[in-house]
Amino acid sequence: MSAASGEHAALMDSIYRGQRHIYDATRKYYLFGRDRLIARLACRPGDSVLEIACGTGRNLDRIAGSWPGVHLFGLDISNEMLISASGRLGARARLAQGDARDFDAATALGQERFDRVVLSYSLSMIPDWDRALRHAASLVAPGGSLHLVDFGSLEGLPRPLAAALRGWLAKFHVEPRLDLRDAALRVCALEALDCEWEDGPFAYYQSGVLQRPTG
Fold first, then answer.
1. What are the DSSP E strand ranges found in the chain?
2. Cα(203)–Cα(198) distance, rounded to whole angstroms?
3. pLDDT level of residue 124 (50, 70, 90 thresholds)
4. What is the pTM of this model?
């Protein structure tokens, strides 16, 4: 792990060392769109599903329940979060520590490509997030897809509420990526992917599916 990656890992561990114990109980009230993403994965038995920045393993656990027979993989830069994920998922998932921007999937997870790749409320916390997005897209197998959900512009909320939310998120080093759609379209052009995009209610979140053709 590079020096920059080590610094970011230490920062994430410092945030989540205590937060991981209450993370799922608190985040359910404002990380909207995650279950919609899971419902749209359209997995088949035997498919491989990788969540980058898997956190406590909450999403992977839900994916296992919604799509039986899939093979689960998770990566996170925070060892503290991986402790929670491992406790939740046990032998159902292969987990590894790594930097979303440049990890070697074959070395870390024993597989180079995945049928589904998930980035859920993670790009808003990753430095060089567009690099992480490009790397995630490169891991999608033929016929597979990359699924994204993250904070939107919040422009549909009353201004005082949106400003308060942005300020609160900043305390956790979270910054909504207002040009995420444009970055996704650039990645689609580079990787020859098809893209579907939508904004959630009040532009609170944005979500996309980047599909790699079979051929």
1. 48-52, 71-76, 93-97, 114-120, 140-151, 194-199, 205-211
2. 9
3. very high
4. 0.90
